[in-house]
Amino acid sequence: MSKAHSSHLGFSGLPETRTDAAMSELVPEPRPKPAVPMKPVSINSNLLGYIGIDTIIEQMRKKTMKTGFDFNIMVVGQSGLGKSTLVNTLFKSQVSRKASSWNREEKIPKTVEIKAIGHVIEEGGVKMKLTVIDTPGFGDQINNENCWEPIEKYINEQYEKFLKEEVNIARKKRIPDTRVHCCLYFISPTGHSLRPLDLEFMKHLSKVVNIIPVIAKADTMTLEEKSEFKQRVRKELEVNGIEFYPQKEFDEDLEDKTENDKIRQESMPFAVVGSDKEYQVNGKRVLGRKTPWGIIEVENLNHCEFALLRDFVIRTHLQDLKEVTHNIHYETYRAKRLNDNGGLPPGEGLLGTVLPPVPATPCPTAE
User: Start and end of every Septin-type G domain (predicted)?
Assistant: First the structure.
């Protein structure tokens, strides 16, 4: 039998009918069962000698100490709440001012425009390039409608700068990071409730940056007023769907969830007092505010929660603030930007045509 003729026969040697062919098409092929991944087996006890895997942490530490790292913090809030002073207190230096010769006794001038001031801080051999983004106080104008837009625009412009560097063919080994990692939002210590303007402001900013709410000048409230106000603020933020950092959805494991739940339910918003002036208390120099009744010590937990805020931002969550900025807020901006541009890098269109940059995400008007 020829090969041409045998190709039309079934396995039984009989000609294959159209029905048989149709049935063979209808019957799905059996799918292989997905392979079940094996659980990693610990072979620690079987090692014949020391390998040195544990030195990776030391290698990373050495590299970080050589290169240093960036941290960019923004302060936002109504005029007169001591935003610049608190940042100076946080980093124990005059970081809100460009001139290093600034006199502690001089009054800090009013901030009239968004300005980023960079400093290199070194402690224990570790260098940090700190950038403080100081913003003008809002709420003083007759018309405060959409007054968050310049700040949102600034945040998005930093994402755009990073994206343009990232999509370059010959990109830098280390892309300069000007993205805002943390935004301290200052709440006026009214003791009553949040202003509608505060709610609108945070509602818009929480979508593009990590917001940490703080009650400023907490020494103007009694302990009972402070506790009640903190609870009221938490409730109002929850009712209005405003997510502050650390966001619940980004808790990586049970340990993170337990730690962050305690912060969300007890500490937030931090009731703080800022001061960059030193006083003598019991033979020690302390940062504080002098009143007719005594010295309010900034770092004394019995007086305010500044120490909790400092530990939270710098000692326990600084790296996570940077990771959430990169993996969540920046990725959201990046995906939208590339999607709007048809998957092409910013500024490039079909056949090499240059497209205009996409403006900052427009905000709906206040309700």
Answer: 67-340
